Amino acid sequence: MFNRPWTFQTSVADMRQLPASRGTEIAFAGRSNVGKSSLINALTGRKGLARTSNTPGRTQMLNFFGAEGASVTVVDMPGYGYAQAPKDMVDAWTKLVFSYLRGRPNLRRVFLLIDSRHGIKDNDLETMQLLDKAAVVYQVVLTKADKIKPGQLATLITATAEILRKRPAAHPVLIPTSSEKGLGIDLLRAEICALP
Ligand code: GDP
């Protein structure tokens, strides 16, 4: 499925604009600058598919990507955790994301991206709370693993797994990745291909 040409399908800022739900859907979430666009580009093998470095116009949108003949749709969720985000922007994000999570029966898994240098932050925990409440399974993907030492990565994996153990909808298996070095991308693809 990942050897096909992936293309951008649509951007959605309102639940009424959602495309018809068909096949398996997966979504990617994370703080802004976590490396989400880079990971989607690495996953789909298309450099410019998801734009790297968020442009303000796209921050509050769900972006849909697909490939002819592939049974999976990839959704890029708006990044969160901007330092200067006004409260109404945060509220709009929560409303859009929560209604999407609750109202999308074919959404099989959310990949929650965590920067290996920072670990889980308060706003990641808030996102996990939304995911737990919506009962959508989420799996943590550690990004930019090339930026820390192997020993630090091992410590981070243990600490993160410990946090996830107490969360009802969290998947227990973590995926360390580096879009830059191509690390963990095959494992991520295998997880996606194994989804029902
Ligand atoms: P987004 O805001 O979550 O979509 O993040 P981007 O994909 O735009 O990445 C943010 C910054 O992190 C960019 O400068 C990327 O080049 C850098 N970056 C992303 N992934 C990696 C990675 O795996 N390794 C390293 N070293 N840098 C990365």
UniProtKB/TrEMBL annotation:
UniProt keywords, alphabetically: Cell cycle, Cell division, GTP-binding, Magnesium, Metal-binding, Nucleotide-binding, Septation
Superkingdom, natural source: Bacteria
Keyword match Chaperone: no
InterPro entries membership: G_ENGB_dom, GTP-bd, GTP-bd_ribosome_bio_YsxC, P-loop_NTPase
Cofactor: Mg(2+)
Xref: Pfam families: MMR_HSR1 (PF01926)
Record bears the keyword Cell cycle: yes
Domain EngB-type G: 22-196
Family: Belongs to the TRAFAC class TrmE-Era-EngA-EngB-Septin-like GTPase superfamily. EngB GTPase family.
NCBIfam families on file: GTPase_YsxC
Annotated function: Necessary for normal cell division and for the maintenance of normal septation.
PANTHER family: ENGB-TYPE G DOMAIN-CONTAINING PROTEIN (PTHR11649:SF13), MSS1/TRME-RELATED GTP-BINDING PROTEIN (PTHR11649)
UniProt-recorded name of the protein: Probable GTP-binding protein EngB
Species the sequence originates in: Pannonibacter anstelovis
